[in-house]
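Run: sequence + iron/sulfur cluster -> complex structure.
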Amino acid sequence: MNKVRTPMPEQKADERNKNFKEVALGYSIEDALNEAHRCLECKNPKCVTGCPVDVSIPKFIAAIKENDIESAYKIIKGTNSLPSVCGRVCPQEQQCESKCVLGIKGEPVAIGRLERFVADYARENGYSDDHDVKSIGKKAAIVGAGPAGLTCAGDLAKEGVDVTVFEAFHKPGGVLMYGIPEFRLPKDLVETEIESLKSMGVKFEYDTVIGKTISVDELRREYDTIFLGSGAGLPRFMNIEGEELIGVCSANEYLTRINLMKAYEEDSKTPILKGENIVVVGGGNVAMDSARCAKRMGADVHIVYRRSMEELPARKEEVHHAIEEGIHFDLLCNPTRILGNDGAVTGIECVKMELGEPDSSGRRRPVVIENSQFELPADIVIMAIGTSPNPLIRKTTPDLKAEKWGGIYADDNMATNIEGIYAGGDAVTGAATVILAMGAGKTAAKAMLKYMTK
Ligand code: FAD
Ligand code: SF4
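>> structure
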């Protein structure tokens, strides 16, 4: 038994940091067979307990071993409506792979890479899902076409519900389309997953902002049930001196211009801040994506993060890729003010930090080192320190219960306090992960179906 997982080919770092093509190139069939044969097909598979949507991991891997990729695809699709997305962006190292028994003495099975292989193979070979569903005469409205809303829509459509998804942007996908860059998640894959929903009869209404174009009350009159999956797209800032200067922007705005509005294409008409020295503040996936985009747009890029490498919340693979691509990491540093001249950014002042006692999150608290100020030159500063739930629906639906910090209240079945209205994903939890949003969409779909057919 090989203790080491089958490597995945990828573009060379000094080539890929100048283009937006996908970094990781995926397994060949030989690679996939090789890796699948490492799986022990455990009777009591721990990996499945780490998957928020309960993919039958040993079963789909067993089908790969048989070279029956179509069956593997059907097994995955049975519980996961977005496998080509999850195979690329899920933090498997914290989920299924973290539980795999092979991880005790070596490297866990590369479950994510195998999932990606199966989804890509299915797409290339035109495998389709079976949709022979009978209408149950019920209508559901889904607000937001992110992973939570899309999963909920797919699960309801499978049961014969007439589903309409309302999306504020001109394209579906949520963060998958506007946040995560092309080089990590090609947009044609997201579009293929959405086409599959359309082929199941799911309808999409774009450029429709619920709470503005149509109210939740109006939806209630027309639909039997509603799912609120409006995400957490409201950027946070540090409230430090200089944040009003030209050249400071939120990661959300920067990434939306690059990904959704394709500002990286040569003939793009989308205005984008371009600089020689870009500082990104934050240490999550959003910070890594912003930094790697900025590098590809031609800048020298620094990430400023107040804790150490060990506490970086971004996926390990993304951090590794960012380092390889030449992003500088200024760790244990925190910005104190943004410096400017004539209204525009010229630099950022930071202080050095050290780690103290653990805080309520269990992570060691960063503490300022006195008199440790230093400056980094910058013409652009991108704030990637987190986002909050979008407030519009909450504000325009006064009887909808919300948490103090802005999340929509939902119980374990994703039911809000208003009968027939459900909610899930980042709108409820605050910024989290694709698979958790999908899990919430699934739980809600089950409860919505029960509600409509009781
Ligand atoms: P979203 O994806 O935010 O979708 C919400 C949708 O609702 C949006 O399309 C929005 O336009 C729409 N909407 C909002 N308000 C309204 C309204 N009033 N009316 C109509 N439509 C509305 N997670 C991972 O697991 N792995 C990663 O590698 C990863 N990388 C990330 C990188 C970036 C840059 C970002 C921003 C996030 C990343 N995440 C990652 C987190 C993950 O993408 C989110 O947790 C997930 O997308 C949440 O899904 P959602 O459906 O709840 O919300
Ligand atoms: Fe295979 Fe690991 Fe899951 Fe066991 S725990 S079934 S070895 S992937």
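>> summary
The radius of gyration is 23 Å. The first strand starts at residue 139 and ends at 143.
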